Amino acid sequence: MIAGLSKAVTLYLAPILALTATILTLFAYLAPSLLLHDQVALLIVTPSTSLLQTGSSQSVDGPSVFLGVLGSCSRSKNSAPVNCTAPTLSPQYDLSVLPANSPNLLLSAPTAATPAFIAVAISFSALFLFTFTLISFRNKLGSKISTILEKPILQRLSAWIGFFGFIIGLTSFLILRMWFGKAVQDFNASITSQGQQGPKLVANTGNAFTMVWVAYAFLAVPIIASLSKLNVMASKK
Hints:
The protein is an alpha+beta fold.
């Protein structure tokens, strides 16, 4: 039973988890400038009185801003259409909808290196998904292809591609989480210091980070499966 369960996890569950992880990471990377404009973001500024009135979280109508890795989206009020910037590795966030007394300078984009590293990590993860799936189902692809995929060097290459993609991507998103976490703290502190004259806004980290943590938790399963195979092969020598 244990052997059957292990085989099912390796052959069927692990590729599905790798596919899900790649899709979730891609969505978090492309949002909000390319897709899910007002639904997924790394940092969100929304209208609220929670910072001006202690214990109050009354929602009000006002401007909203959604910041991501490649750009930003914004709207002047809750019922207004969402406008997005062009996606780029060095985004300039459009904060023109926010009032003049809001601390806009605190909402800056990270350096271009971070989005570039994330793009490399997603490429590695996609390549790992492809090679891992082929290796898992090699016995169903014909004798010639199966023989090629049986080679230890290809299996090692696939495992290390997945491992480096995992490390690079997770590290990059951790850096982004610290960057935007500090921006949220400073933005809200600046509004609070203005008292009742401050803008009715509040900043929060977005649900894109939740998608990323789930994605890398899923991705860990096939990577561990690949690395465990390497450990077994090494111990036989």
